[in-house]
Predict the structure.
Amino acid sequence: MRNIRFVLLAAAAGLVLAGCGDDSGAGGTPSATSNPSTPIASLPSPSTGTTTGTGLPLTVSRTGGFAGFNDQVVVGADGIASYSSTGKSGKCKLESGFLNTLTDAAKQVDWASVGITKPTVRHPDDMIIAVSSSGGLARLDDPKLKPLVAPVGTLLTEATKPGNLCKAV
């Protein structure tokens, strides 16, 4: 009887350990095995009349992480932010001062040099924040996107829970 308990305990421990290193995408984390050239967020279409270098429209997506995020915010040139976050969606109008800060930061990025490569999972429960605009797409932690770090953090907070900087429309 004692040997059976030992075998069952060892088998259970083996199953637990086998699951710890799995980065296959379980638990809300995006899979690292998907095609790395596929965009994680939709890019603005040239037919939308977007002028390269304006920084808008800007698409931000936040996926994965321990909490299993799946958020997306698209900011148009008119300052309207369309968002989807954990089963809810809506629109809000960005406050003009914050919109200017976000636009100025996006204009500082050389989007042509950013390129278009789908950010991939680096480790289990990796949270990916991806930004796309003017034909470029990259993780927010890319050094080329440094001017956007603070405004995008604020955007994700304000647009997914409209408040002072983003009024519901």
The CA atoms of residues 61 and 159 lie 12 Å apart.
